[in-house]
Amino acid sequence: MRDLPHKGALAACAALAVGEAAGFACGPLGPLWLFAALAAASAALFGFQFRRWRIVAVALAGAALALRSECARSQAFDEAESTNGPFVCEIKASSRISSRGEWTSFQGSWKGIDLEVRARDICEPPRRGEVWRCAGWLERRPREDRRRRALWVTGTGSHAECISRPSRFSPPRAAEGARRRLSAAASIGLDGPRRVAASLNRAMLLGERAGMDRKLKETFIAAGAMHLFAVSGLHVGVVLVVIWALLRLLRCPFRLQALLALPAVWAYAYMIGMPPSASRAATMATFYLLAPLFMRRRDALAAWARTFLLFHAISPERLFDVGSAMSFTVVFGILAADRLAKSLDMPFAARSLFMVFAAWAAGVPIAAHVFGRVVPGGLLANLLLMPLAGVSLSLALVGAAVGCAVPFIGAYFNNAAALVTDAMRGIAWAVSRLPLSSIETGPWSAWQCAAWYLVVVLAALLVYLVVTRRRNYLVPA
Q: Which of 84, 279, 351, 439 has the fewest Cβ atoms within 10 angstroms?
């Protein structure tokens, strides 16, 4: 398959998103997904001769995927709501397993619906990969609300019992064991008053945000930097760079470095539970690094487009997932800003500042739409914290890996990472105390979000025109 130009690839991504949005908007017409799929196949066959019909085919395919998903979800909701007593289902525990007091919660899915089971009085907390039979009451929300639903296992007739456990050497058990060993190794040498720094190290490296202090979370949220503790492209990139440096020290052939580094990146993403941002980053890294094997040049924007199409074709519900939308949008803003900065021959400092601003501007409407908050201080916080986060992640990764074998050496790296995270905590506290660093605006409407993005695009176009015109004016005839 030939590489599409960037305009064509981005147009295909937009067409798929528009088609899926239209399909979800026509939820009652879910049984018609098969006709939409046939129309998409017909348009695709016709599109080999007329390029513009390819976009129509992608949009129709997106509508068919969304209608099929909506049909399956409607049937599942009807089944859950038709019972007079507790609703019974089997759920495979996937991630974010926590136990607080007499309540235990874990996440999984059932027939395309993401569920968070909240059970009471469970003797032994579930483990990743186990299948549980749960009887409880599904949280009632409007069907248009596609966020994760809660299954409350409490009251008369409710129960939760494990019916299937993975074998001792199964991938889920191995991944959970590796995560626990790294979590323990990342805390070596950080006892007593340094426990706060240990919790930050674990949160940044493994996404274990449950151990963070509540006030500390609020500080980073007010500074617009809580995303540093959600494993994303920054974390996957640091893991990739560290592994790549190790392979170079071992004098591994250059052509084998990508093939050896990618399995480690995917193992890291699987170990922490495959959150959307980490799986997106690992997939994008795979498309980018393996491009030469398919006689294609490495291009980050093309890798982003392929990842977007793959993810939304497999799971159309990601269109309404806040974390996935934020991840894809912010990364696209960074890539677009980098491409524009290179075309304008900006110096490194100006390019870095421009990319940080683009990442902040791309995420503002989504955060404002969901949380009703705009954080201008996030621009300053991310400019200062992103380099420190990269250093802290590198030290914490090396400390956790070395600490598993040689604890006293790992303690030195852990303490070095703790010094960096202490500096990050101080910066976040200072930024959160600045005037107008966080502004409550109320949830933004779709029109307000569209207006914001329109203003950002026009501003970028204005910068491009001014710089190119000035450059042409200064060049002698």
A: 84
110 and 246 part of one domain: no
Query: Residue 101 to residues 105, 125, 156, 317, 435: CA-CA distances in angstroms?
Result: 11, 11, 20, 33, 39
Q: Give the domain extent around 73.
A: 6-81
Confidence of residue 1 (pLDDT cuts 50, 70, 90): very low
Task: Give 399: exposed, middle or buried? Use CB within 10 Å, 0-12, 13-18, 19+.
Answer: buried
Please answer whether residues 168 and 393 qualify as being in contact, where contact means their C-beta atoms are separated by less than 8 angstroms.
Answer: no
Q: Do 337 and 455 belong to one domain?
A: yes
Within this chain, do residues 230 and 197 fall inside the same structural domain, yes or no?
Answer: yes
- How far from 144 is each of 77, 102, 421, CA to CA, in Å? 12, 32, 40
The pLDDT score that the predictor gives to residue 145 is: 64
Name, in order, each residue with C-beta under 8 angstroms of 303's C-beta and a sequence gap of 6 or more.
Answer: 284, 285, 287, 288, 291
DSSP string of 55-73, one letter each residue = HHHHHHHHHHHHHHHHHHH
Over its C-alpha atoms, the chain yields an Rg (Å, rounded) of 24
268, part of any domain: yes
Domain stops at, among 108, 141, 164: 164
Is the pLDDT at 3 greater than 50, yes or no? no
pLDDT at res. 2 = 41
What's the total number of domains in the chain?
A: 4
pLDDT in tens, 159-184: 888 888 877 777 877 888 888 888 88
8 A C-beta contact, residue 271 and residue 179: yes
Residue 83: strand, helix, or coil: coil
One domain for residues 73 and 24: yes
